[in-house]
Amino acid sequence: MPELPEVECIVRDLRSCVQGKKIVGVEFFFENMLPGITPEEFAGQVCGRIIRSVKRRGKYILFYLSGDKVLEIHLRMTGRFIFHPVPVKPEKYTGVIFYLSGNISLHFQDIRKFATFRLWEKQELYRATPFRLGPDPLEDNFTLESFLAIMAKKPGSKIKAFLLDQRNFMGMGNIYTDEALYRAGIDPARETGELDLKEKKRLYKAVYSILQEGIALRGTSVSDYRDLRGLPGGFQNRLKVYRRAGEPCPRCGTTLQRTVIAGRGTYFCPQCQV
C-alpha cells in the first residue's frame, strides 16, 4: 500500500498536471470503487467542475472542486494514477478515466480493485475518514509535545502497532515504520510505556526524517508503486532493514531478523534495536 511519501509525491504531481483543469467527462469500469453512488450520479456531480486544488491528508488524496465539492480518494493496496497528455485507450486494470479540458486525461488503475472514491460537500468534510483520524505527521500541529501526549494515552501498545494505527497519527505504513524504528534504535516489540524520554525524542525525529527522505526520493517501489508518469521511486535503495531478513545489519553486521507484530511482517536488528 502506498504510504505517506508515495501519496505526497502523487499529490504534488497531480497539482502540476491537473490543477485548474475542468472535468469534462468521467468513465468508470470498476463500479465497486463508488460506495453508495452510481457512476451516472457521480459523473453528474463532478462533470463541469474545475479542480481547484489537490491536497493530501495521511494516505488520502483530496480533490477540491469548484462549487464546494470534494472528492476523497484512497488508493488502498494497488491503486495508482497515470497522467496522459494525449488520449489513450484504457488498459486491463483501468478503473476510471477522468477526461479533462485541454484534451488530457487522468487514468486510475487498480489491480486489486480495493480503491475508493467518495464525494463530499465541503462543509461536511469533517465527517470524512481523513478528518476523523489522528494528525498528519507533516502538519504543523504534529510537534514533539503532541507526539508525547499521543504516546502517553497508549502505554501498553507495542510501538510498531502504535505507529501503524492511523487513529494515533496518519500516514505511516509497514515500510517507513520499520525504517524509523531502526533509525531510532528501538525494538518494534517494546511497549510505548517502556520508552524513556530520550528514546521517544529519537523516534519522533526518526519518523519525521524518514518521511521527508522518502518524499525527496520520490517514494519506495518494492511492489506496485509508480508515480503519475509510471516511474518508480528511489527510496528502496536506502532501505536498511525492510525485507532484508537474513542479511547483515548495515550498522553492526548482526543478521537482520523478521517477526510478526500487529499482523505485519516486521524487520529489525536484534543488536541495534533494544
Describe the structure.
The chain is of the alpha+beta class. Helices cover 25% and strands 22% of the residues. The chain is built from six helices and ten strands, in the order αβαβββββββααααββ. The protein has helices spanning 4-18, 39-46, 144-152, 159-164, 174-184, 197-216, and strands at 23-28, 51-57, 60-65, 69-74, 79-84, 94-100, 104-110, 116-121, 257-261, 264-268. The strands form three sheets. The protein has a four-stranded antiparallel beta sheet with strand order 1-6-7-5, covered by helices on one side. A four-stranded antiparallel beta sheet has the order 2-3-4-8, with helices on one face.
Name the helicity range: 25-40%
Strand order of the largest sheet: 1-6-7-5
| Largest beta-sheet characterization | 4 strands, antiparallel
Radius of gyration: 20 Å
Query: What is the overall silhouette?
Result: globular
> Which percent band covers the strand fraction?
15-25%
Write the H/E string, N to C.
HEHEEEEEEEHHHHEE
